[in-house]
Amino acid sequence: MSIDFVSEPSFRNAPPRVRARITEFATVIPTETILQSESAILAQGLGVSKRWHRMLPALYRKSGVHRRSSVLLGPPNDDVFARQSFYGVASESEPFGPSTAERMRAYQEHAAPLLHRAGQRVIDRMEGTSDSITHLVTVSCTGFCAPGIDSQLIESLGLSHEVERTHVGFMGCHGLINGIRVARSIVESNPQARVLVGAVELCSLHQQYSEDSDQLVASALFSDGAACLLVEGDRSEESSHSQGWEIVSSLSRKLADTSDLMGWKIGNHGFQMTLSPRIPAVIEAELRRPITEWLATEQIPLSDIQGWAVHPGGPRVIDAAGHALKLADFMLQPSREILWEFGNMSSPTVLFILERLHSSIGSGDHAVMIAFGPGLQVEAILLRRV
Q: What is the pTM of this model?
């Protein structure tokens, strides 16, 4: 007698038990903002050489940023230097600014309250109460503390003390996409799960007293912000969630021989960013193939994507992604607008762009979130408007 074994379909190819959806989301920035021209004046005052003192205003103007926000800022003042006290002028005894310990104390003070504001907005809009949230995923790369921001949110948002926590740390600008992927996996394996995903970055804590070009470019781009979203299952066509975004698929691709192009290291005086000027050229040369191959597995041609939330790593990064994917300029306008209005807030930024796209994408249409991080790593999420 012979027995024929029928192999089970692989987990990777098996249809999900439930469709995961982003049903609510919210974005916030710190209360105080500053014009980019004023940011350049502050940077000049930290003690750069005469050469960079002359060049900084032009560098800041070319950043594509008009206004940024920071948890370190006080109210507007005729004296721009009076708006903050965290960074003092470089001196012989303190040539590199606040220590990493001082910066982490500021992170512990400000990160969770900023993320709380976004989380509270999501909870106020969602069906049910905060204790119905079963899982909490937090995302951040600009600070560390324990108990962490997740622990602080459990208390401030009134979440259940049995909520299951996951923290996505130190992954850079694509971190929120990784957090959404975690939430999707949770919901697809547990149809009753309600996953709150929050990202907060305080990039302004890492201003470097340096004339290294990578550090100067980073200081001209980065800003503070937070974003939060709710991921839950849609178990029937009669779901009460009539709006939102279905999470269809995701892509994670490390570009070969690029590990030295972007980095984020912990120094004695904050976190130090490496941003190679080669990044835009690599993105332009290497991005199209993985994106088109990935979308082909979903039987969606690139031309059918109605919205693009391209992380604005800088004007040249936006241009490079647009050239690689052959996108019309209007498709990149939301990314340019967010960079202009808020700066590069690292991981929360893609949700700011999706928020901008939300009302312009019709039911059944697709959008792609895409961001780049240390590696050089490409992370993307395919969404369908519902």
A: 0.92
